Amino acid sequence: MTTEFFLRTVLIGISATAFMDIIAFAQKHILSQQTLNYAMVGRWLGHMTQGRFIHRPISASEAVRLEGLLGWSAHYLIGVLFALVFLRLVDETWLMNPTLMPAAMFGVLTVVAPFAFLQPGMGAGLAARRTPNPNVARARSLYAHLSFGIGLWVAAICLSTVA
Predict the structure, then answer these.
(1) What is the C-alpha to C-alpha distance for residues 93 and 156, in angstroms, rounded to an integer?
(2) 57 membership: H or E segment, kind and range
């Protein structure tokens, strides 16, 4: 992996994750929709170091030091890792002429991560089946990850205009 590819990957991953967060912020403040509390992600990850992987629910588990910082850092690191996987899967020419469909489809596919790992670990069950309204939770996760995919595309367009 070249230094240029690495830097592009990091920039695209951070930008796509920030785009996802901007959409979530808008949903929260315009539509009054609850968004994921990344401190709870940090709490979940913090408890993993003590061998505890499943909580019912995570909000009832003991807080861990710097859980907010840990959760937000993990969120952005995962965004960069997802960007790396995506950029390895698409043809290198995609970076020079980004198209929406591959990025959006990849974003939708990334919803497997919260459905299969995050939600069960935090006590919501596989694909949020233990939440009060699983279909709403699933739709919100899907929408969030679609917005990440759109963010990949937007970030790549921005980078292609300056490269």
Answers:
(1) 11
(2) none
Token readout for 115 is 């459905």
Average pLDDT score over residue span 125-145: 95
Structure tokens at 119: 């939600």
How far out from the chain centre does Cα 47 lie? 20
User: Is pLDDT of 100 > 90?
Assistant: yes
Instruction: Dihedral sign for Cα 162, 109, 140, 42, please.
Output: negative
Peptide bond into 120 cis (omega under 30): no
Distance between CA atoms of 79 and 113, rounded to whole angstroms? Answer: 12
For 3-59, what is each residue's pLDDT tens digit?
999 999 999 999 999 999 999 999 989 988 888 899 999 999 999 999 999 998 999
11 CB-side CA count, 13 A = 16
Q: What is the pTM of this model?
A: 0.93
Gap between the Cα atoms of 126 and 131, Å rounded: 10
Q: Output DSSP code: residue 48.
A: H
What residue has token string 């919501």?
124
